[in-house]
Specification:
About 30% of the residues lie in helices and about 25% in strands. The longest helix is centred in the last third of the chain and has 19 residues, at about 175-190. The protein has helices spanning about 10-20, 45-60, 90-100, 165-170, 175-190, and strands at about 5, 25-30, 60-70, 110-120, 125-135, 150-155, 160. The relative contact order is 0.16. With about 210 residues, it is of the alpha/beta class. It has a single domain (about 1-205), classed as Maf protein, CATH 3.90.950.10. Bound molecules: inosine 5'-triphosphate (ITT).
Amino acid sequence: MTILVVATGNLGKLAEIQSYLSHFPLELALKPTNLEIEETESTFLGNARLKASQVAMVTHQWAIADDSGLAVDALDGSPGVFSARYGTTDAERIDRLLKALANNPNRGAQFVCAIAIANPTGELVLEAEGICRGEILAEPRGVNGFGYDPIFWVAEYGLSFAEMEPQLKAKTSHRGQAFASLLPQLEQKMLNLDIPRSEETGILRNIKLS
Ligand code: ITT
């Protein structure tokens, strides 16, 4: 089975990426922990491309990368691409964000996710982006998920991401939107490469992407 290296060190992201790809006959592998790619681009997509391409080149395998973050309206889109670098722990990042917003009544924000897939030579072959609008809560709510999930509230469901079951977050979230756009492209890519399909299940099998 074709190996797809997941170019992330974030275990929360990894779990979500695994669940989106669970129906694809790809063998997921985690990038070597000592392989750190510096995020030098100013956009989510730029950084996702960078991570996918560099991890693919180093491992000589297909690689998928996710660059994501939280852009807060009243903070002119901060922390944005610096979301991971906004503090050293999730608690610290959340605390800093809540202090920066203080009592500002403008709580609008969006989570953004960019996904890129590179082939074993590092060439980018697929990409997608997703956005989820919400509001920043005054204090954390819920225990599920990871990262900024406890302070991101989605009006449509009256729940924070951390109060949602994983299936609901998957349906609603920025990453869910990005994968909804990516997965048909991935399936098509496999079909274009003439990968056999199982008659019974319709699931693609025996993929050889390269
Ligand atoms: P990799 O680059 O190794 O994938 P990272 O955590 O450094 O891991 P990013 O640079 O993409 O990832 O930073 C994303 C930040 O936004 C990070 O702090 C995440 O915890 C947070 N984040 C991304 N998606 C999230 C989600 O669905 N829920 C909560 N926080 C999220």
